[in-house]
Amino acid sequence: MPSTQAPGCSLAPRSLWLLGAVLLVGASARPANHSSTRDRAGRREDSEILPPDHLNGVKLEMDGHLNKDFHQEVFLGKDTDGFEEDAEPRRSRRKLMVIFSKVDVNADRRISAQEMQRWIVEKTAEHFQEAVGESRAHFRAVDPDGDGRVSWDEYKVKFLASKGHNEREVAEKIRNDQELKVDEETQEVLENLKDRWYQADNPPPDLLLTEEEFLSFLHPEHSRGMLRFMVKEIVRDLDQDGDKQLSLPEFISLPVGTVENQRGQDIDDSWVRDRRKEFEELIDANHDGVVTMEELEEYMDPMNEYNALTEAKQMIAVADENQNRHLEPEEVLKYSEFFTGSKLMDYARNVHEEF
């Protein structure tokens, strides 16, 4: 389903999916609530070759959780320094106002939906470019002969080596078609990865991935086909009646586990409230009470121009206290936790000084 063009959109008409291609050439058990980058362990090691569970700038995680940090990712891009929990408040306020000035293209001290839309697209492109660079480094690690194509067996050897297996022994056994002794969990991961490998292998399939195909293997948001595959996986996991679409009860179904205390009940209530809002206001485009794979795919597409405008309007509405459909410095500072993940105090007293 093609992306809908928003009326009055001032973005250049070229397809944003082309932007992903340009960047590629230029850079050659569900928990009780959302997934959060602040809760995830530190950065992935350079040797890590598994597809990431979290995709920056994408609204759902690979397992169907809401991306709790999405608004911060599309507002800050890669520039998150200065908004850590222990950051000096004055410095954080000043930096937030610098960002405000960059978003406010016409310098009228107000951020419009179109200005925010442009900014979201720009920050999403930053995440795309970062993913391209990481993928290129990982591709080199799994392409030992440097021929520009990686076979499934080459990847399998590197993957098992990263899990503690002897790389030479694994390579020898694969070469001689001998049985590999791996535990049940690792075998299951391998089977899922091979299925994903097949999906990333553009026709005619040869089980050899080019650098571009390997990028879509690691980051499905870079490929329409792989994004569709990711959507199918999410629907498969959440779909309880097998109709290959999601009803509201299926989408907001509570996490596995029994609520044992009030804190657990509060967490579950938050889960239901947030997912219901997302389903009804954003994902179910025609408001018929069910979400099709096509609707979910459009919702998750990070390079969808209409989505960027919708997101811009929603972000403004969160902090627009004077209801003028714009963001002003005082409002951004007051709602800093929404935009940056950090709560900056004394916003009104400091706004003019920081600006």
Automatic annotation (TrEMBL):
One of its GO terms (molecular function) is calcium ion binding. GO terms for biological process: calcium-ion regulated exocytosis. Gene3D superfamilies: EF-hand. Residues 91-126, 130-165, 226-261, 271-306 form the EF-hand domain. Residues 36-47 have a biased composition (Basic and acidic residues). Residues 1-29 form the signal peptide. Residues 30-51 are annotated as: Disordered. GO terms for cellular component: endoplasmic reticulum; Golgi lumen. Its main location: Golgi. It is found in: Golgi apparatus lumen. Keywords: Calcium, Glycoprotein, Golgi apparatus, Metal-binding, Repeat, Signal. Belongs to the CREC family. This is 45 kDa calcium-binding protein. It comes from Phyllostomus discolor. The lineage of its organism: Eukaryota, Metazoa, Chordata, Craniata, Vertebrata.
